[in-house]
Structures are given as C-alpha cells and as structure tokens.
Design a protein that fits this description.
- This protein has about 200 residues and is α+β, with helices and mostly antiparallel strands.
- It has 2 domains: about 5-80, 3-Layer(aba) Sandwich (Glutaredoxin); about 85-190, Glutathione S-transferase Yfyf (Class Pi), Chain A, domain 2.
- The chain is built from 8 helices and 4 strands, in the order E-H-E-H-E-E-H-H-H-H-H-H.
- A hairpin with a 2-residue loop joins strand 3 and strand 4 (about 60-65).
- The mean pLDDT is about 95.
C-alpha cells in the first residue's frame, strides 16, 4: 500500500519519545492525526496495555514503541533508512543502538529519580552519576561522528532523528551538553524544515 494512503493516528504526549515520531512523520510528509494522551492515561491504555506512549494506529493495526513505529514508517516509505540486510543498515542500526543505550539511558535515569519513581524510591545523587555517564557518551558520539555531516550514514536517516532528539531531551532536562561538537550537530540538524514543522506541531 502506498504510504500516502495510510490513515495514521498518533497517540501520545507532545513531548518525550512521541516527538521523534512526529518529527519522522513530518520528514516523510505523511498525513496524521495526533491524539494527545499522557503515558498511563486512559487514552494510552486503550491502545497499549502497558500504558506506554507513543502508539500509532494505521487503520486497524496498532503499533507501539517509538523506534519500531519509525522503522515501520520509513521502511514503508523507502526513505530515511537503508534496505534491511545491507551493511549500511547495520551501521545505521549500530549508531541508533549507541544513542539509546549510552545517551538516552542516563537521561531516563535522571527522569526516573527526579519525578517518575515514588519519592521514597528516588536517589537524588543519581543525577550526578547520570550526568557523568552522559558526558562520557557525548565524547563517544564525537568519535563516531568525526567530521561527517550525518550520524548514521551518507544522508539524513533515522539515526539523526534519534540523536538530535536526544539532544532536545537532554536540554529539556537541563543536562549540560559538555560537547560543543554534539551541540553544534544537534543545532544544525534542527535547521531542517521537518524539525521545524514538528516543533510547530507540538507548540
């Protein structure tokens, strides 16, 4: 089925991991409706028994997990990725996995111990540990990026959506970006029209 013919409804908040899906939809120029619903709210439990956001409805099908949704959309559209089974796809996937495991994980740890967990389960000192982990991950990012324009290959891909969105998330969490190169990369990617449309969509 042609990607333009899909009837898409995105369910989730305006921020968090939902934003990266909105950005992907805008980059792909796919029409969609956005039903705003917070994690663990009735609107989310209607489509995901785990209560996690985002979710995407494509006709009768419901997909969950932001990265899985993005892979589905980009593979269907044949854009912003590389064909499955290619070296280029494997390299892109490795970069995405790096961001999720070494950059997103410490920021999520800060969030958990800042406001997500019950107060009696929070450890305020965890933020300093997580910030140090994030700073180390930034230096690794710089090594991986080198002097390349894009993070996941020879063109803009899902890896850039995940990486630049990570900078957005870190800044919102008031995590200092200790790498000037990482900050400059994120600012440059944020000049894309698709990013700007996504920001307008959640304003």
């Amino acid at each position: 089925m042609d990607g333009a013919a899909m009837t898409l409804t995105l369910i989730g908040p305006k921020g968090g991991r939902t934003f990266r899906v909105i950005w992907g939809l805008e980059e792909l120029e796919l029409p969609y409706d956005h039903l705003v619903a917070r994690p663990h709210s009735e609107g989310i439990y209607d489509v995901n028994p785990l209560g996690q956001a985002p979710a995407l409805k494509d006709g009768d099908a419901v997909l969950t997990d932001s990265l899985a949704i993005l892979y589905y959309l980009t593979d269907r559209a044949g854009r912003l990725s590389y064909p499955a089974g290619t070296v280029e796809r494997a390299r892109m996937d490795a970069r995405i996995n790096f961001v999720l495991t070494e950059m997103e994980a410490p920021v999520w740890l800060m969030a958990r111990h800042g406001f997500v967990l019950p107060e009696d389960q929070r450890f305020p000192g965890m933020r300093a540990v997580a910030e140090a982990d994030f700073a180390r991950a930034e230096r690794k990012f710089d090594t991986l990026l080198g002097d390349a324009e894009f993070f996941g290959g020879d063109r803009f891909t899902l890896a850039d959506i995940i990486a630049a969105d990570m900078a957005r998330w870190a800044r919102q969490a008031k995590v200092p970006l200790t790498s000037a190169a990482f900050a400059a990369y994120a600012d440059r990617i944020a000049e894309r029209p698709g990013w700007k449309r996504a920001v307008e969509a959640v304003a």
